[in-house]
């Protein structure tokens, strides 16, 4: 079993139905968070994720909409009785921001802390991030206004593959990483530097030969039908907009 649950779907401005974009992956024995916005404990519980199985967090980049839930996550896990190690993966810059923020919050003085591992992701195409008994995760630097990574996740149980662009303008390196994926989750913020339109996301999905395209990190006041239609003009496969709590089995 490999399951990806969308915990948030919005670009930088969220609303009650669309939290900022982040997601969780679940296998039979472990779960892995990708970015951490909003109210992660509430969302993870609503998505029925066993918090004791949640072992790691990958940060794609350190814009606030992707990391502002981290202090709440770490506090919440501790209050939930965590003792097992927890691992955070990200670029050198993202890790520095997270550790700096947590130090400002005085986390070293929290009672009964659990160990948190700090793992730098190499900024190289196809860099190995995680190789567990359930998932292999690789990263590739993408094109954004600060160092950011796209991800490819392979389920060792099913052989299924998903890829997530995070924030980026159309990226050749990401296209290479996401070749032939079962589910391509691509941002569609709009026509801004370091971001992609839904038309561009559709073109990327076509170049990847993806089996399905899921648009995420979209403006909440956009015409959702138009976003889908624009991507469909470029991509021959099915297109949908990510919705909070949507589940993709792969
Ligand atoms: Zn960003
Ligand atoms: Zn963003």
Sum up the overall morphology in one term: globular
Which structural class is indicated by helix and strand composition? alpha/beta
What's the arrangement of strands in the largest beta sheet?
A: 6-5-4-3-2-1-14
Small molecules (ligands, ions, cofactors) in the structure: zinc ion
Helix-strand pattern, N to C? EEEHEHHEHEEEEEHEHEHEE
Q: How many helical stretches? A: 7
Helical content, roughly? Answer: 10-25%
Number of strands: 14
Walk me through the topology.
Elements: E1 3-8, E2 22-26, E3 31-34, H1 40-46, E4 54-58, H2 64-67, H3 70-79, E5 86-90, H4 92-104, E6 116-120, E7 127-131, E8 135-141, E9 149-155, E10 161-164, H5 172-177, E11 183-187, H6 198-208, E12 213-216, H7 224-234, E13 239-241, E14 247-249
Your description of this structure?
Helices cover 25% and strands 27% of the residues. It is an alpha/beta fold and 250 residues long. The strands form 2 sheets. Strands 6-5-4-3-2-1-14 form a 7-stranded mixed β-sheet. Strand 8 and strand 9 form a beta hairpin. The longest helix is centred in the middle third of the chain and has 13 residues, at 92-104. The mean pLDDT is 97.
